[in-house]
Write a structure and sequence with these properties.
The complex is a heterodimer.
Chain A (H helix, E strand, L loop, with lengths): L2 E3 L3 E5 L4 E8 L6 E6 L6 E6 L3 E5 L2 E6 L4 E6 L8 E8 L6 E3 L3 E6 L1
Parallel strand pairs in A: 2-11
Antiparallel strand pairs in A: 1-3, 3-8, 4-5, 4-9, 6-7, 7-8, 9-10, 9-11
Chain B lengths: L3 E4 L2 E4 L5 E7 L5 E8 L3 E10 L2 E4 L6 E3 L9 E3 L8 E8 L10 E2 L3 E5 L1
Parallel strand pairs in B: 2-11
Antiparallel strand pairs in B: 1-3, 3-8, 4-5, 4-9, 5-6, 7-8, 9-10, 9-11
Classes of the chains: A mainly beta, B mainly beta.
């Protein structure tokens, strides 16, 4: 089956850079996704990597190494509003639903 | 465009009661899923569907039933609620592609308490 590991908590200050790592074990791999969830809200899509390398979207970047079964989400120029939970996810073996990691809670302080 | 709509937003049940959590999407997505979210456990897949008439079990299916009679609707049924089913439930939908990116769109969640 699919399993993902990510740190439970990360703290940082405004303006800093933080990296959230994710390692995965899968039967069949279709790509690694990242989702953001604010307290009391619904998860929202951030990024997706199917191939090795770095994908950049504004202040957020995501990296994938398929050979290492590893990826990370990089958040730059942190803002208070970035305080949220971040989840990495892979598709199930059939590629028809997402399996999520347990999430990393990011706390940004001033 | 409403996206994914879940009802109710909050519910309190007594142990042994049954209820149905509703989920509807208006994006013509084939793929739909149900997740439960508990503190420190992330989002765990309960059941999913790849189209009308087709459903399958996820990671934690016990105690839950689903059906998919239309593309738009994917209700989740609790047959006999237990305190262990106290959780926040999210419904999600996405386009049907296995190998390409399929951004999942989530409803706002149903917060269920079983007493």
């Amino acid at each position: 089956g699919q399993s993902l590991e990510q740190p439970s908590e990360v703290t940082a200050v405004e303006g800093a850079i933080v990296q959230i790592n994710c390692t995965y074990q899968t039967s069949g791999f279709y790509g690694l996704s990242w989702y953001q969830q604010h307290d009391g809200g619904a998860p929202t899509f951030l990024s997706y990597n199917a191939l090795d390398g770095l994908e950049e979207t504004g202040r957020f970047s995501s990296f994938l190494s398929r050979s290492d079964s590893y990826g990370y989400l990089l958040l730059q120029e942190l803002q208070m509003k970035d305080s949220a939970s971040y989840f990495c996810a892979v598709k199930n073996q059939a590629g028809t639903a997402l399996i999520f990691g347990k999430g990393t809670t990011l706390s940004v302080s001033s | 465009n409403a996206g994914v709509t879940q009802t109710p937003k909050f519910q309190v049940l007594k142990t042994g009661q049954s209820m149905t959590l509703q989920c509807a999407q208006d994006m013509n997505h084939e793929y739909m899923s149900w997740y439960r979210q508990d503190p420190g456990m992330g989002l765990r897949l309960i059941h999913y569907s790849v189209g009308a008439g087709i459903t399958d079990q996820g990671e934690v299916p016990n105690g839950y039933n689903v059906s998919r009679s239309t593309t738009e609707d994917f209700p989740l049924r609790l047959l006999s609620a237990a305190p262990s089913q106290t959780s926040v439930y999210f419904c999600a939908s996405s386009y049907s592609t296995v190998t390409m990116n399929t951004e999942a769109f989530f409803g706002q969640g149903t917060r269920l308490t079983v007493v």
